[in-house]
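Allow me, if you will, to draw on your knowledge of protein folds for a short while. The matter concerns a single protein, recorded as an amino acid sequence and a row of backbone structure tokens. Kindly check, if you would, that the fold set down in the tokens agrees with what the sequence suggests. You will find the record immediately after this paragraph.
***
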Amino acid sequence: MHRKTVPSFITIILISLWGISCNNNKPAKTQFNIMETTIAKVHHAFENGGLTARQLVQMYLDRIEAYDQSTKLNS
């Protein structure tokens, strides 16, 4: 590479890496298993932004529906 293109190339790479790091500001969403959790883990997930109350309720509703359909409990 020529002396003039090396700084340009490095600048492009740094800007690209900066753009990637800016898009990663959201907290990581973890897979939350309601069958194997504790109240402390639920609180921790709420505090870290990995889980909302709405998501938790929806998980329980989905679980109820899955059991209801397979066993005809009509819960």
In short: The chain has one domain: 5-71. Residues 1 and 9 are 10 Å apart (CA to CA).
